[in-house]
Amino acid sequence: MAAQVLALFNLAAVPFRDTVETIVKRAFAPLVDSGDLKIDLSDTPAASADHRLTFTATYDWDDYSRRGCFFRPLYYGVTGEVLLEAIERRNFCANVTRCDSCERVFRRSADEQGKMIGVTAIHEIGHMLGLMGKAAFPGANSEGHSGDPANGMFAINMHKDFNPIEMGGPRTRKYTIVSGDTLSGIAHRIGFWPAGTYGWKFLYDLKGKDGTQNKTLLKSGNPHKIWPGEQIWVPDPEAWVAFNRIAFLKDKTFSAEQVTTMRKFLKSGGNIIQLPAVPQRAPAPTP
Fold first, then answer.
1. CA of 152: how far to CAs of 118, 189, 228, in Å?
2. Which of 57, 63, 91, 206 is deepest in the core (most CB within 10 A)?
3. pTM score, two decimals?
4. Beta strands per DSSP E along the chain
5. Angstrom distance (rounded) from CA 175 to CA 185
């Protein structure tokens, strides 16, 4: 059977294109070398390609994924698509109402933003070539993801040290309450929205790096009565940025089992049904 063709579309929009192309070619070299796959990296790839990966410039920011200056995309890519703006703007903030308190996870360099686009591309291509479901390779979850930062199908929510930011844990620091503070107000500033309902509750229940919850640190025992000078745990943006950089920017490869699965998929003539593109719109102006 002739090699199937993987085409990458809109490469002209990709920052650090050379880095991205190098990562893709290295990851799938076993399949190319065996004659099972051809990769079209031209500026005008054929629409008839067997597998298509598109680099989309914008991301659809909603109330969950954008909170003031805090950009928290749900995905960096979906099957058949890499979302460039999601990678570019992902950040963590000490105060989501002040953009100068925010730090982007992937700085604009080949080693960070370029590498992250590349590893996202190989992840989505892996799905396209059959790495989906628990049977795809040992250690995969129901979506074909791995918790190993060195694996091409890495998903950070499977990392052994991951927990949602609203749960606190090791990536927290102490904040000293000042006059005029409320739990709702603090929750709003750190991005735990909606502040009027669940935001303050996340903060009240949040655990610090020593395992204590904020509810046990407040003298009154009442979330609506806090006093200047009291200290509570809040997320540590610098620690979250470091955790994401280390995990996502680790060199990633596919295991022998994964390569075998992709090769079988290609030899079978398999082609997954492409998901509809994520609706895109221009991002709202940054405050």
1. 10, 35, 48
2. 206
3. 0.91
4. 4-9, 37-40, 51-56, 66-67, 70-71, 77-78, 81-83, 91-93, 102-104, 172-176, 231-235
5. 13
Token pair of 129 as six digits: 């070539």
**Domain spans of the chain?**
4-162+240-267, 172-235
pLDDT single digits (tens) 114-126? 999 999 999 999 9
pLDDT tens-digit profile of 85-98? Answer: 999 999 999 999 99
- 136: Cβ contacts below 8 Å, ≥ 6 apart: 130, 144, 153, 258, 261
Please report where in the chains the tokens 């930062």 appear, as a residue: 149
Structure tokens at 61: 């920011």
The hierarchical CATH code for the domain 172-235 is 3.10.350
**Residue located via tokens 């669940």:** 198
Q: Contact, 91 vs 108, CB < 8 A?
A: no
